[in-house]
Amino acid sequence: MRRIGILCAALAVCVLAPARGFAQGLIRDAEIESTIREWSNPIFKAAGLRPEDVHLYYLNDPSMNAFATRGQNIFLHTGIILKAKTPNELKGVIAHETGHVADGHLSRQDDAIAKATRPMILTMGLGILAALAGAPDAGAAIMSKSQEVGAVTFFAYSRVVEASADQAAAKYMEATHQSGEGLLRFFERFRYQDVFSGAKRYPYFLNHPLSADRINSLQQRVEASPYRNVKDSPEDQHALEMIQAKIVGFLYPPQTTFNLYPQSNTSLPAQYARAIAYHQEASTKKALQATRKLLEEEPDNPYFNELYGQILFESGQAGKAIAYHQRAVDLRPQSALLKLNLAQDLVATEMPENLSYAERLLKQVLAIEPDNGFAWYELAQVYGQQGKTAEANLATAEQAYAMHEYGRAMAFARRASMALPRGTPQWRRANDIALVIAADPGIRKQMAQQRQRGGQRR
Fold it and tell me: 220: which of 103, 168, 290, 299 lies 20 to 30 Å off by Cα?
């Protein structure tokens, strides 16, 4: 889990097929997360939400899309980050999705689906009756329309909540003294995609009355805002271009990066993208040279230090990488991911004097992200090197539990509970893991499915 790390391939939801070379899944990166979180928190507060309760996730998917799910979760595709011309566009998208979360649209969606299903079932029933009455062609025609009837009913609900989220987004942008113009540009792009995608649509989508109505209504709200003409700061624009360069550098083939950011482009984002691309193609000397040049321009940039440390670590120089990852942590001490990088360097040296510091760092990471499976894995390595077998087993159980590998979690939790001193917090935690797995029907079902898949693979 270095820099941009692919975490979970099963979670990606695509509108378009991913570009060649993309591995779909969630990505983690300290710079991307910090930048977008800084832009998002004021919006969440304007919506009456606690920022710490809203979870932002980033999907490695080149299509332009974003969505919200229950539990105050907002997902952004890398494609929407790359296609944003200004931070204001991306902030507008986040504000729109925040509108869905804050107004409870997701919790009411099941009711809307149920209402849409009822006329669909009725239409199918009429088709069956027509067929039984001796008109099979008419019955088949009626039944073929049943899905369309249900969809139109659901989209009527969708039209209302989407318009509501638009207005909420405009309100949040105004409350944070920002323009809503970016959201208008975003919807114009979706209109174009919708019209020219070539996909089969219901007439509702083909005619676009919803999109036109929504855009007109939103435009009136945006034009009435006293902050309509507020522009993004140069710092925010630069930050967007830097995370875009990073996404391209890490997730696209190196030659694509070099084509998008040729040597003639001497901007900092272009230098950043090329440095990453050199690393991706295993040109370590060039990658280090390019990153050193970045550090000469901005020695106090935590992410340039992080990149230099990553290149060293991944070229087998963990000991040398420590100083750069330590510098990154010193510059951004609140970043769990930067601390995790440093801890990984320390563990990789296998030097006893580094292990206690790595342990402290990993515990700090887990205090922020208790479900970070990789941090638990590294902590298990620390305990293993220290000869603390029971603690290592508990950390492994935590790692497996976080990754939903429940059979493995149960096994290691039981090992830990037998070896840990009875009545200690660690002993209780080991027993809690085992008891939760044993008592939860949903988890037991998942375990059975995992065992079945494992048997099929064998």
Answer: 103
Domain locations in the chain? Answer: 5-112+140-232, 388-458
* Average predicted confidence (pLDDT) for the chain: 84
Q: What is the pLDDT of residue 3?
A: 57
pLDDT tens per residue across span 55-99: 999 999 998 888 999 889 999 999 999 999 999 999 999 999 999
